[in-house]
Amino acid sequence: MLKVNSDYCKLPGSYLFSEIARIVSDFTAARPDVEIIRMGIGDVTQPLCAPAVKAIHEAADKLSRAETFRGYGPEQGHRFLRDAIAEGDYRSRGIDVSPDEIFISDGAKSDIGNIGDIISADARVAVTDPVYPVYVDTSVMAGRAGTLGADGCWSRLVYLPVTEANGFIPPLPEGKVDVIYLCYPNNPTGTVLTREQLQPWVDYCRRHGSLLLFDAAYEAYVTSPDVPRSIYEIPGAREVAIEFRSFSKTAGFTGVRLGYTVVPHSLTGLECDGNPVSLHKLWLRRQTTKFNGASYLSQAAGAALYTPEGRRCVAEGVKYYLDNAALLRKSLGECGLKVWGGVDSPYLWVKTPDGMTSWEFFTYLLHTHGIVTTPGVGFGPSGEGYIRLTAFNTRENTVKAAARLSLQ
Ligand SMILES: *Cc1c(COP(=O)(O)O)cnc(C)c1O
Q1: Is residue 168 over pLDDT 80?
Q2: Which atom of ligand 1 is least distant from the CA of 187?
């Protein structure tokens, strides 16, 4: 009989969101009178910016005529978009990233999952706990995680707890790891690291020849001046870090699909059979072999976001969600709850009151207020005792949820 990749068999079912969906549907069946407000899922609610929509229409028109039709584009992405990104997201902010260090993709999740292709199968991987589950699950699929223990931890992964006790500042790994995943502004906790707090991570990676995989999916939400929007704001990062970015949460592209990854030419210090190797070259080889580029329609839409009108619209959209976050933060605080995040991030991380577990508080908020959240423990063992709320709902629903919470 055919043998499958046994690493996939090690993965427990993705119970978290399906379990939540089941509980919520049981609740609505029993209590049809309660109007549910969903603050659990990380998907956006606001429509696309007008310049992006216009660009998609125009791109579709081009594809409809023989004279302007386009087929395959470059695997790395169209030059018009890579130029716009290099200028708009980096050079205009004084950050050194060139267009040919940028790889356009159909979203950050694909790249975050695929990057493992160019990393040795026995690499030691460190993740924060709680964590965006993709880093852990893709490490399991690649056979790097070992076995799952009763404590919810994988035997070969190094966990870096982020909790109230350490002020949500992860400790550096003890000893040497090969790969570190960091996500800032953080999903799920909504917390950030300042430039000063990120420097030791870059220094650690330079010292140990480790690779820093930096997920900046929420960079557009940064409002605090001492918090960087890119890892390349940190001196030395160009030698150790790959940065992932997405248009999903910043421009409502969760359905359009567009992201990009920066692999600097100066990313060296890694080796192949004892010889130094350029990760940029390996990633280019990987992409040209296994990927045929993001949709022309998506790339046209993405480029439209870098026009003055596009930029204004993206900034308004981000502000809309940040205002939602501020509303939630205020009403949760007024209830006497401890809250993190929601300032440089669309996520709020809330400590459960009276020593309740994540699931107990989840159930309480559902039954008492009709509000759906995500139990923190679903993001890792150190998430126990917290829940996550998102600011991605509509203003109307967010105002309603805030009012219900203040009735407590
Ligand atoms: C949503 C999200 C992404 C990426 O999403 P794509 O839609 O695939 O671009 C990446 N990282 C984190 C932490 C996210 O929350």
Answers
A1: yes
A2: 13
